[in-house]
Every structure is written in structure tokens, then in C-alpha cells.
Amino acid sequence: EAGVTQFPSHSVIEKGQTVTLRCDPISGHDNLYWYRRVMGKEIKFLLHFVKESKQDESGMPNNRFLAERTGGTYSTLKVQPAELEDSGVYFCASSHPSSSYEQYFGPGTRLTVT
Amino acid sequence: AQSVTQPDIHITVSEGASLELRCNYSYGATPYLFWYVQSPGQGLQLLLKYFSGDTLVQGIKGFEAEFKRSQSSFNLRKPSVHWSDAAEYFCAVGANFNKFYFGSGTKLNVKP
Fold first, then answer.
1. CA A37 to CA B35: how far, in whole Å?
2. B99: which chain A residues are within 8 Å (Cβ-Cβ)?
3. Do A40 and B105 touch (CB under 8 A)?
4. What is the pLDDT along chain B (112 residues), one digit of tens a residue?
5. Which residues of chain B are within 8 Å of residue A103 when distances are taken between CB atoms?
6. For residue A94, what are the β-bridge partners?
């Protein structure tokens, strides 16, 4: 069974540009989460989808971040326009509805804003 | 407010020595607790979890962790460390419809 995949693995962009990160969850996992780790600090929750609906987006930093999950499958996280403080590693995780606390994480996307 | 503290940023142990990584949490209800490991270039892998019941839980790769409610701790242990255990370890508490709170991680170096 394929795990959670994320694309790209690395992205380097200039301040003011737009970047879109993609996450493909494990098949059958209705729950999808985005997390971010900045500068070696703790991994912080950004938001949680149940299928295509946003269950909790309390961790989204500001309105420059837009997450979507059309059709309830893969998800995208767009940052527009990117700022220097957006640099970090963005993790995606997914879980099955029958065991929602067991989150499986992807390898992360390392975003560098210069 | 919920939080997780991992007081050790870096730890170095010799191969074959025992290991204990500390984790303290702050959470108002019965916590769901987790330990994850991230090897270089890899994603976070679940080592073990505690939901309820026996406070000593066994995980993969020979790891175990003990939940101590009185100390708000969930320390990770391994009796004999292997060079392949060198990685970064994260403690997490699950709360409020699956939202996880993570510690800042502990990087483990293993000396030959």
C-alpha cells in the first residue's frame, strides 16, 4: 500500500512568488492534515480536512495560505504571496475514519523563500 | 493550553547503551500520546502510541514508552541503541478531533 506522498520534495522561491504544495493521502483516508515545521521548532498544526470539507483550520497563519481538497482526494496548499517567514517543512498526514488518531505522515516539502 | 515539551534538543549515546528521551505534556483531559521518528530524508514514522490501559506501551524497533499521569510524562526508552536509531524523535499529544501538538524534537546521535 502506498503511503502519503507529497510534491515537490523541495521548493525554492523568491519572496512575493506563489507556490503550491500537493499531498496525496493514503487511499481510503478521509482525514487529511497539514502541518508545518519552521526553523527547527515544533511541528505545528495548520488544518484538517474530512473528505473535501475543512474541519479545523485554526492553525492557518494568515490569508496568504489557501488549502483545498476538491473531490476529497488529494489536497493542495497554496502560499500567495510567499514571505520569508513561510520557509520551513510542510508535512501532510492522513488517517482512516475508523482510527482517526492514527495519522500517517508524508516525507514533507521543504520550502525556502529567499 | 495544550503543549508538549522535549527538554533535550540533542542527545548522544554510544551504540549498545540504553536510551531515554524525555517528553512532558500539558493537556486538560486524558491525552492520546505518540512518539514519531524522522530519519534523514524520510517522513515521520509512528513508533508507538498510548490511548488507555497499560501505561507501558511497546512499539516498533524495540522502543517502549511509559505514561505517568502524575508527572505528565511519556518518556521513550530503548535498552540497547543501534547505529540505525540515529534520527530525530518527536513526542505528540492528540487533542480536539485529531489535532496533534508536537514537541520541538530531540536529535539522537549514536557513537560507534
1. 16
2. 45, 48, 56, 58-59
3. yes
4. 789 999 999 999 999 999 999 999 998 777 899 999 999 878 899 999 998 888 899 999 999 999 999 999 999 999 999 999 999 999 999 876 578 999 999 999 999 9
5. 46, 98, 100
6. A32, A104
